[in-house]
Amino acid sequence: MTDEVTLVQQLKNEKSKELAFRELIRQYKKRLYWHIRKIVISHEDANDVLQNTFIKIFKNIDSFKEDSKLFSWMYRIATNESITFINKRAKERNVDISEIHSEMASNLQSDVNFSGDEIQIILQKAIATLSPKQQLVFNMKYFDDLKYAQISEILETSVGALKASYFHAIKKIETYIKNNHH
Amino acid sequence: MNNEIKNSENFIYQKVGKESGFKVSKNYFETIEDNFAIRLFEENINQHPGFETPEGYFDTLEDSLLRKVNIKSKVISLRQKLIQIIPLAAVASVLLFIGINSFQFESTNALSFENITDDAIENWLENNSSSIHTEDIATIVSEAELLDNDFAFTDITDDTIENYLYSSEDATVIQELY
């Protein structure tokens, strides 16, 4: 596996860019996909957003300043693309973003790309009750096992604020599960 | 706060585990690089298609399209005037021109136009439509006699009209449209 510094140099070089980009996709596709998927829920939407994300990375790699980790930078792009997607969907349907999340969580039972039990559906419905920021922090901390420092770099939010967000998220989810699962 | 977080996390973990429940089809991740290459290719094509348009093309497009739409409207109004139901009075004139001898008369009375009944005319038309040519009708029936309401339930398709216009060597029809 190519180390990050070398990979970035190859990505910024026109001659090696495409080959390097293939390597980049190979290394990061799964992590970015699952991050996106947890935000947009549907596989088809996640696939679209993932492609948009890689396109954006490809077009803007020259502006990557290398003062943060490449993965943090890409993760941030993926997050922004996902949020943009959800906001656009909410605007098209003229509903609040929380309604979109609730709707998506409710549709999981009939989703062929969801194999979770009843409790996992309840969890997704619980997550849908969180604010967009809390959802991001919860998913990145609980499912992706990212450290606060990494999440701070991605979301450009202080560690303290992230801890507070995570605390509230965890508490809400716990309460929701207790009230809805017997 | 850290302890509370830990306790809540443990509760959630006990109930849900670390599985989100989301899944993908078997080969999905194997196809991402190739799909991306296609997508990138398409993006580049869209950005730099290399196609040019003549100068002022978009500035004049609206006018030329509106001109074409106006032509179509005039063809349709001409169409309404050409619809085939011909009033019986005009048919009678045509038949007189073609020849009264074709009629079978019920009586032996002297041959006269007054003896031709409407039913006889209609019957003759039904049985001898191939003998009647549009040029004959056009010669006899003046435009003043062709009322729009007379042709209310006939249907000439646009294709028929267009084909007629294209095939006609007589330019006066086209000229009349302008």
Task: Please give a quick description of this structure.
Helix content of chain A is 75%, strand content 0%.
What labels would you give this structure?
heterodimer; A: 182 residues; mainly alpha; Rna Polymerase Sigma Factor, Chain: A; Arc Repressor Mutant, subunit A; 75% helix; B: 178 residues; 2 domains; 8 helices; 57% helix
CA-based gyration radius of chain B? 37 Å
Q: How would a crystallographer describe the biggest sheet of chain A?
A: none
**Class from helix and strand fractions of chain A:** mainly alpha
The CATH architecture category of the largest domain in chain A equals: Orthogonal Bundle
From the spread of the alpha carbons, the general shape of chain B counts as elongated
Query: How many beta strands in the DSSP annotation of chain B?
Result: 0
CATH class of the largest domain in chain A: Mainly Alpha
Number of strands of chain A: 0
Strand fraction band of chain B? under 5%
Number of helical regions of chain B: 8
Describe the structure.
The complex is a heterodimer of chains A (182) and B (178). By secondary structure, chain A is an all-alpha fold. Helix content of chain A is 75%, strand content 0%. In chain A, helix 2 crosses helix 4, helix 3 crosses helix 4 and helix 5 runs antiparallel to helix 6. The N and C termini of chain B lie far apart (86 Å). With 178 residues, chain B is mostly helical. The longest helix of chain B has 26 residues. At the A-B interface, helix 2, helix 3, helix 6 and helix 9 of A face helix 1 and helix 2 of B.
Q: What topology does this entry show?
A:
The complex is a heterodimer of chains A (182) and B (178).
Chain A (H helix, E strand, L loop, with lengths): L3 H8 L5 H24 L2 H18 L9 H24 L3 H10 L11 H11 L3 H12 L4 H8 L3 H22 L2
Helix pairs in contact in A: 1-2, 2-3, 2-4, 3-4, 4-8, 5-6, 6-9, 7-9
Chain B lengths: L1 H15 L15 H16 L9 H26 L5 H11 L19 H10 L6 H7 L17 H10 L4 H6 L1
